[in-house]
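re: ur question from earlier - yeah i can do the single chain one, its not a big deal. heres the input i used so u can compare w yours
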Amino acid sequence: MSNPVLSPVDNSVEDVYIQDIPRIGMTIESENAAYCFYNQYGRNVGFSIRRDHAHRSKEDPTIIKQRRFVCNKHGRRKMDKRDINTKEPRAKTITDCLVRMCISRVKDGQYECKDFFDDHNHELHTEATSHLMRSQCQISNIVAHGIDLADDSGMRPKATFDLMGMQVGGSENLGCTRVDLNNYLRTKHQHDLAFGEAGSLLAYFENQTRNNPSFTYSLQLDNGEQITNIFWADPRMLIDYAVFGDVVIFDTTFCTNKEYRPFGIFAGFNHHRGATIFGATILYDETVPSFKWLFETFLETHGQKKPKTIFTDQDAAMSRAIAEVLPETWHGLCIWHLM
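and the output i got, formated as tokens:
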């Protein structure tokens, strides 16, 4: 059989996506088509994929000359500095799996499969759980339309997810998880943020700054110059952290505001064992870049004084950001989340 040419806009390749497997020498129309093809192959076999190494053209960095797609369990986990003190260490999610597909750009602008390895060193997903894999979780246009209708009618995310799951014979048939639905709503509400709401927030901060110059706040903007992440601290918070900031507790409470954004506080205890606040934040999402910006802003606000200990929940993105920004701070999990 001749090598197929796969295109993401050609409906005739759907059968190829379903039936074919990667072969060295096969031709694919684009890098994105290669990802879609390999991702569908991963779904059929039972593993999640991700983009790994990419070699770009020096003349035009937008052109990818080589790309490697790997199993999501590829790589080795760095030594966890908390292993000695952590009773419940995070489960290992990577196994140094070497499964991969490598493509290279050829003269006509298409891509050719140059390397393919399919021997996994871990258990694979079954068909019943394949939709839960990270690269497979996606919200279709039909599901997105249903989420929009439910959200506009005032339904909460949990009720929306349960209802839509019932309509398709079970949530496993939605093709996405509740976390995906929550993230979709966050993005939707972020784009729908009205100037009046943002203007009111800025007016409050400016008023606080005029009343007390020690009040501080920081905003992070996206490419469209819309507000994404917000952090603020009043004078009392600055003083309390300078005195009692050796131990910090940070946690986010999801869905406490209209836009379903995570609201978080940096808290601790004073010499009377009373709770005290060191800062507050409203985040766009709970990703590594957002948490990294937040922790860097927190340190800048408090004169780069780093806590000796910080307690958080079990969020993986938060843990990674802490490891990058606060490598010398001992990171523990709060008992409430462990229970």
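The longest helix spans residues 195-211. not sure if urs matches, ping me
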